[in-house]
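Researcher: Batch entry, complex prediction.
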Amino acid sequence: MTTPLEDVTPAERARSTSFYEASARTRLELLLDAGSFAEFIGPEQREVSPHLKIFDLPEQFDDGIVVGHGRLDDSPVFVAAQEGRFMGGAFGEVHGAKLIGLLRAASQIASMPVLILFDTGGVRLQEANAGELAIAEIMRAVMEARSAGVKVVGLIGGRSGCYGGGGLIAGCCSALAVSEPGRIAVSGPEVIETNRGVEEFDSRDRALVWRTMGGKHRRLLGAADVFADDNVQDFREAALELLGLIGPFGLDRLKAEQERLADRLSRYGACLDAVDIWAAQGIAHAETVPQLPADQFITLADRIGRTSRDAR
Amino acid sequence: MTLDDILASLFPKGHEIRNDKGVLLGSATLRRGDKMLVLGVADRTALGVDEAIRLSGHVLASIGRDSGPILVLVDSDSQRMSKRDELLGLNEFLAHLAKVLIHADMNGRPTIGLLYGHSAAGALLATGLATRVLIGLPGAHPAVMDLPSTAKVTKLSMEALEEKAKSTPVFAPGLSNLVQMGAVHMTWSNDASLADQLEALLADMPAARDQRDALGKARGGRLKAADIAERVRDLALQAR
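Model: Structure tokens for the complex:
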């Protein structure tokens, strides 16, 4: 970097910052309008997990999640960002309760959108019951918020992906944006391999992990509506785009989702690999999809990929 | 109690519930004569994409056609752990099932979960934990995460984990721990008629508002969750 820092615009800084590599706090700082973020129950209040000391594990003052409010293109938004580098971004009692409180406020206000920057392996094993229940409460709170007219957007592109109960919460959101390294699944590669054997899933085969759970496959399937390149500015633009697209939630959305998922099963239920699904979608040279640069992939996905718009 | 015993005790006036490879679909007649939609997972079946889509379809077909409460019976494995299920987007199928149940509950079709066997992880989130009131039957043995997996991740011995489990309900498997956390609202008795207990619950259903964090606090299982959520909510309301 030869340019002095003060000459770099926030958008340029956001464009040159990898979402995957950034911390939760950096993601929020660069995603929102400059200087607009304010946190609720910040680390200075030291609301740590009461359970990690049972396991002699270090605590973190924000318990691995940052929640607050800010502005996006001048409009107020609530935000929550998980820190994948603390306990794999996993949901514990305090971590989950912060997001629940945010969603409950959003339900009451009924107009301010919520952005959730997922980065999680799922339930935190050391407080598994509290984490599982927090996820159930968050799913309920997301549906109550959406029913009240709140747009809930998930952004997925962190180190820990969006696994376990995180994947279920993502499935409850109004819309998702995902980048290539942002994986979405319930069972992680190691969990499948441990339970079912390496023949079922070889967790060390990284190419297999990316093409089964990664952002490109999720975009082509229609699980995520927007594919973002791995930088914070792209996620900011994706969030703005999605907020403009989301319509009101109601029973018709759930009926459309039932059809959308049943249609997916009947079309691709017999496919053995993501490449077979992409080929069935009509993509020529489907095996080259993982190598496509973001711009070319987005062009392809916009032409061929499915969408969950109005059907989730 | 076997599933047949449970159904006989719940619905002395009869039911039409079919068990097709572990997927329960049907309806039953309540004592006062009205119908209850019934669905569930039996025989410790794993909940995968094929099972979930049938369960959500059963509820959606009933919305607008029927009225009355909905019962979700649970004796499942975890979510199905397979390449195929993940390839097809299992997270969306499980979320969809939970969303359909939550939507029904919020719109005049109160939901009750009845955990009578095993369940775990994503399967429990998409079924019992997506209902308004989750009941446990004696002998139910849910395990959000099993102790051997926890031992592997935490690098602690099973003995050490079992010792720690005595002092906290927060991580160990078992029905009583989920009761203390506020996840399971109450445990029914096997010695009384389940129909009586169901009737008593239906006559006194709690409000649709999620009160599990308050329950967990009152029972000493989750001392921080309700307060943290309330503090964030207050701050967020002031900030708008």
